[in-house]
Amino acid sequence: MTKVELLEKAVGELTPEEQIDLIGRAWDNLAADPAGLAPLTNEERALLDERIAAHEADPSSALSPEETVAAARRRVQRR
Q1: Residues 21-69: pLDDT tens digits?
Q2: pTM here?
Q3: Distance between CA atoms of 8 and 64, rounded to whole angstroms?
Q4: What span, in angstroms and rounded, lies between the C-alpha atoms of 36 and 54?
Q5: Of 21, 29, 12, which is closest to residue 69 (Cα–Cα)?
Q6: Whether 55 and 71 share a structural domain
Q7: Are 37 and 44 in contact (CB under 8 A)?
């Protein structure tokens, strides 16, 4: 069994709140060394540019961190 498969099995045993916490920790770990990530594709860069433009056109449409976490929790609970 690969490390990823072992982790996937372990994650399945976590509560939804623990899974969200783990996702946050994994994201923080990746963000700590962005140089280790693959460069963006042209398509990814274009999508980011579109999203930034949409936000700049209407900043009030953005969700707060609390709203984002609440939405993620609702999605996990539906599963």
Answers
A1: 999 999 999 889 888 888 999 999 999 999 999 999 999 989 999 999 9
A2: 0.51
A3: 29
A4: 29
A5: 21
A6: yes
A7: no
